[in-house]
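Lab notes, practical 5.
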Amino acid sequence: MFGPSQPRSQPQPGHLYDVAVIGAGLAGTELAWRLARAGRDVLLVSQALDHLGNLYQPTVAGAEFPPGSLFAQVAARIAPDTDGWTFHRYLKAEIEATAGIHLLQSTVTALDEGGTQVTLSTWEGPVLRARVAVLAVGAFLKGRLLLGETLEEAGRLSEVAYDFLADDLASSGVWLIGAEQTAAGVEGAPPYDVRFLTPAPPELSGFRLTRFERVYALGRCTPGEHTYTSVLEDAARLAEELVEA
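Output from the prediction step:
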């Protein structure tokens, strides 16, 4: 689908990335890191850079990150400390230091595939373009957080859901189904439930959304049971697939 990029870009309006990764949690961060190390020009876009690499638990103790993953390397670097915030700071610094990743804080609201590229519309206004787009938005497609009797439009505490993006996928014909997970309490806060949407299994051929030629999905925003280990292993497989395409 694309070969190695020319010398690393200094993105300007209208720049065409090799891959745009939407979501900078576990799946998106690992995928972007692997693609950049393979020589690809990668856009990693997140609604909040302060949440980059955030995990669904307060520490990395017992996380079982696969050997060779970015997450395993960062966890080893901070050991014996397992604090989630310390982990986030080291992970963000590693991503910022990785040549080939353009880290952008923005909210993607729609995808439009045409010709040899995918156009990403954003809530802020600027249009982004890439040869391939990957959804790695976790529990954020129409995420609804239930904390006691309180309902919040979020995929995680204080993190805004991707409602517009979910609506756009549905309008493109993607059949979305409901999913749910429970997050453990943090620092005295009670546990909470998150309800969100994922593409139905028939909407996926491997990692690719069948309604598109150049749009893929990865991690918790796909149907099925997921662990830190399985998500990071899937990111490695998708990175290899995209590099070889």
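Observations recorded by the TA: The longest helix spans residues 228-244. The CA atoms of residues 13 and 128 lie 8 Å apart.
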